[in-house]
Specification:
By secondary structure, the chain is α+β, with helices and mostly antiparallel strands. The chain has 2 domains: about 55 residues; about 150 residues, Glucose Permease (Domain IIA). The protein is about 20% helix and about 25% strand. Strand 1 and strand 2 form a beta hairpin.
Length: about 240
């Protein structure tokens, strides 16, 4: 009888041990699953493609850098350097000539070509500006420099309200930044004609509130036609 009771007691202890181990393993498995989901990985799906997520917007190369402090004197070692591609590619001169033949208009109402100042190689926060600053009163209409297509309406910390517009051949992109507001009903994918109002001069982004202006850039697109990427072309050479 005692032998029977001892066997039954041993069997009960084994069952309790097995149950305890199973519970511990289940808890660890559940904890691990929770950690994987919190880290953005569920059912083997990597973080970048988790359902409901969206890829981060690319950072445009042509967003304007913050203006240098007034009166700041840069040491020779601190002088900004242009990007390696700026003006050095084999087709740069050809691109400039091709754009000159298109008779682009100054994109800001009331500004004559003679009033433009070449700010392309100016210092901006330790790098080359690579754009034209066109000073004008706030709310001055900004117009499309030629026919084209609005490919992106973008808001960024540096550029504020911006417009990216492709030319008809989709070889070049025109970039308008620091806008106060867009033209009414302007939308991505819209085709516009030269002279169409697309926005209004402002100081959004990192522009000074006391110096509203249009930051205008041109860049030659890569074969991938990425609206945020390309070779900078000096607008002053085209509009002057």
């Amino acid at each position: 009888m005692r032998r029977f009771e001892r066997k039954r007691s041993d069997r009960r202890r084994r069952l309790l041990t097995i149950a305890g181990v199973s519970f511990a393993l289940g808890a660890l498995s559940s904890s691990g699953l929770s950690w994987r989901i919190a880290d953005g990985v569920a059912d083997g799906v990597p973080p970048a493609t988790v359902r409901g997520g969206s890829p981060s917007a690319p950072v445009p190369q042509h967003d304007p850098a913050g203006p240098a402090p007034l009166g700041a004197q840069l040491k020779p070692a601190d002088q900004p350097k242009p990007r390696a591609t700026t003006g050095s590619s084999p087709g740069y001169s050809h691109a400039v000539d091709a754009l000159r033949d298109r008779d682009l208009i100054v994109p800001v109402d009331g500004i004559r070509e003679s009033a433009l100042r070449d700010t392309f190689f100016d210092s901006r926060d330790g790098r080359i500006h690579e754009a034209l600053d066109i000073m004008a009163p706030r709310h001055t209409p900004v117009r499309a420099v030629e026919d084209g297509r609005i490919v992106r309406l973008f808001t960024s910390k540096a550029g504020g309200l911006t417009v990216y517009m492709f030319d008809p051949s989709e070889q070049f992109c025109y970039y308008y930044a620091h806008l106060d507001r867009y033209a009414e009903a302007l939308k991505e994918g819209q085709t516009v004609s030269q002279g169409t109002v697309i926005g209004y001069v402002g100081s959004t982004g990192n522009a000074s509130a006391t110096a509203p202006h249009l930051h205008f850039a041109i860049f030659r697109l890569t074969p991938e036609k990425e609206w945020w990427n390309g070779e900078p072309i000096n607008p002053y050479l085209i509009l002057k």
